[in-house]
Design brief:
263 residues
Length: 263
């Protein structure tokens, strides 16, 4: 009888040990509503021209982000491109014999392992006192999201006012600056804190002798060397500078998914 009791006790102890081995520790068990499948990094998007057309003096180059599968962030960037450029192109195309000209030029070479970026200059002519606008579309590869200048500047401990303050003017007494705005940017090196920002400045003639007008400026920020400079936009984006050797390389030479479309 005693032997039978001992055997039953041993059997019960063995079953408890097996159950303990099969059960996962509480810290490894998925909580309610938590997916057991880890997030799979998405393949970085590529860039291409959805429209590449020349007609007379007009040039239309409209970029498009291309990504495999569904990517709401890429969809949002392409939706902005449609609103800012494609709609204008479609309207312009309805009147091909009009004297109105259109220039939409895209630079797609600002891409690397960290960011995929498109910069677009847009101008309707006759210009009537404007240099047009500069737009940017920036995608953060690591965090798989579109990124704006407002989101990126805090990483560099800079504000929009810091950047706009780099623009200096030598104006006649009758010309004043009414207001300024930042329009877009390109990231050259996050490690070195190097970016270019695009600004539009509006001028007013207080004497009423000339029409109000505006100009575009490019602001160069280099946090590594603690420099902040600005230059007037002359119709061409400056070449992409090479980041400091101590920072991660961000030259467009490293990108196999981008191509320059600048005329």
């Amino acid at each position: 009888m005693k032997k039978w009791i001992i055997l039953c006790a041993l059997a019960a102890a063995s079953l408890c040990a097996l159950a303990a081995c099969d059960a996962a520790p509480p810290s490894e068990m998925p909580s309610a509503g938590q997916s057991e499948q880890a997030t799979v990094p998405q393949e970085p998007p590529g860039l291409r021209l959805s429209v590449n057309e020349k007609q007379g003096d007009s040039i239309i180059e409209i970029p498009e982000f291309v990504a495999p599968g569904d990517n709401p962030e890429i969809d949002s960037l392409n939706a902005k491109i449609y609103e800012n450029h494609t709609k204008l192109y479609e309207e312009w195309k309805k009147a091909p014999n009009s004297v109105r000209g259109l220039e939409i030029k895209s630079e797609l070479s600002f891409a690397n392992e960290e960011y995929v970026q498109a910069v677009v200059t847009q101008l309707e002519f006759p210009t009537y006192g404007t240099q047009g606008d500069i737009f940017s579309y920036n995608y953060d590869v690591k965090n798989q999201k579109a990124i704006t200048l407002e989101e990126f500047l805090p990483k560099l401990n800079r504000s929009p006012d810091d950047l706009l303050g780099a623009i200096t003017f030598n104006l006649p007494n009758n010309i004043t600056v009414s207001h300024s705005e930042l329009q877009g940017f390109r990231i050259i090196s996050e490690v070195a804190g190097m970016i270019d920002c695009f600004a539009k400045v509006y001028f007013t003639d207080t004497s009423g002798q000339t029409e109000d007008y505006n100009m575009l400026y490019i602001i160069h920020l280099d946090n590594f060397n603690d420099t902040l400079t600005a230059e007037a936009y002359n119709g061409q984006l400056p070449p992409l500078p090479r980041a400091n050797p101590s920072s991660s390389t961000t030259s467009s030479e490293n990108s196999s998914t981008s191509a320059s479309a600048s005329a």
